[in-house]
Amino acid sequence: EVQLVETGGGLVQPGNSLKLSCATSGFTFSTAWMNWIRQTPGKRLEWLAQIEDKSNNYFISYLESVKGRFTISRDDSKSSVYLQMNNLKEEDTAIYYCTAQVAYWGQGTLVTVSS
Amino acid sequence: DIVMTQSPSSLAVSAGETVTINCKSSQSLLYSGNQKNYLAWYQQKPGQSPKLLIYWASTRQSGVPDRFIGSGSGTDFTLTISSVQAEDLAIYYCQQYYDTPYTFGAGTKLELK
């Protein structure tokens, strides 16, 4: 059974940092292109970042508006992907999902940025 | 960025009806190298994460009922749900994965009349 489990969400003040983790199982993680996608309170879905696999030199892409603040990384030995988020803003409040390509999604972790 | 325009934003249907949801992209999602359209459809029920229904515009994900049909090519795509059932009430999203940033339609909320 495919599983993706995000952790690390919570309430954080503007300007602070948070690191999300996504532990996976049930599929070949090492060849999967992994993504982070968020869903705003208004239900809008927004792709944030992608990290490709080793054969593609772990190429990384970001949404322009988070470039420089968010960093995606992966650890193939742990079948896990991460999202480091710095200088958080209130508009970053959302449910954050990790996904394996288009097929598999986690249950999401809620990030609330508020003073 | 590729803009995905989805319509309608909401749809009220009766059980057994056939519904059509449209998705239009601002540029072609058809890659000439493999003749595939990089378009996916998702279903999201309350309190759940989105679930993949259709990829490559028309390929049904394993386990998805055959009443869900994806069609279209280039810039115009359609999700058809034949004989809607109560369990189909959800929000449906289209997504292009042709090029980053991958982008989503705003969603179509399917409700019961």
Overview of this protein structure:
The complex is a heterodimer of chains A (115) and B (113). Chain A is mainly β. The radius of gyration of chain A is 13 Å and the shape is globular. Chain A starts with a strand and ends with a strand. In chain A, strands 2, 4, 5, 6, 9, 10 and 11 form a seven-stranded mixed beta sheet that branches. In chain A, strands 1-3-8-7 form a four-stranded antiparallel beta sheet, with no helix packed on it. Chain B is an all-beta fold. Chain B has no helices and 13 strands. In chain B, strands 2, 6, 7, 8, 11, 12 and 13 form a seven-stranded mixed beta sheet that branches. A four-stranded antiparallel beta sheet of chain B has the order 1-3-10-9, with no helix packed on it. Chain B is globular and about 40 Å long. At the A-B interface, strand 5 and strand 10 of A face strand 7, strand 11 and strand 12 of B.
Which key phrases capture this entry?
heterodimer, A: mainly beta, four-stranded antiparallel sheet, B: 113 residues, mainly beta, 0% helix, globular
The helix tally of chain A amounts to 0
How many strands, which pairing sense, and closed or not: the largest β-sheet of chain B? Answer: 7 strands, mixed
Structural class of chain B: mainly beta
Query: What is the CA–CA distance across the termini of chain B?
Result: 36 Å
Residue fraction in strands of chain B: over 45%
Strand segment count of chain A? 11
Shape of chain A: globular
Helix count from the secondary structure assignment of chain B: 0
> Overall mean pLDDT score of chain B?
97
